[in-house]
Amino acid sequence: MVSHSSKNKPSVYIAYTGGTIGMVPGDKGYRPEAGFLTERINTLSKSYPEQLPDFKVHEYSPLLDSANMSPSDWEQIASDIESHYTEFDGFVILHGTDTMAYSASALSFMLEELSKPVIFTGSQIPIGQIRSDAIDNIIGSLLIAGYQAIPEVAIYFHNHLYRGNRCQKVDASGFDAFASPNFPPLANVGTKIEINQSIINKFPRNSFKVQRITPPKIITMNLFPGFDASIIQALTEQKIDGIILRTYGVGNAPVQNKALLQALEHAHQQGIVIVNCTQCFQGHVDMSGYETGTALMNAGVVSGADMTVEAALSKLYYLFNIGLEQQQIETKMQQNLRGELTRPSTTSV
Ligand code: ASP
Question: What is the pTM of this model?
Answer without folding.
Answer: 0.95
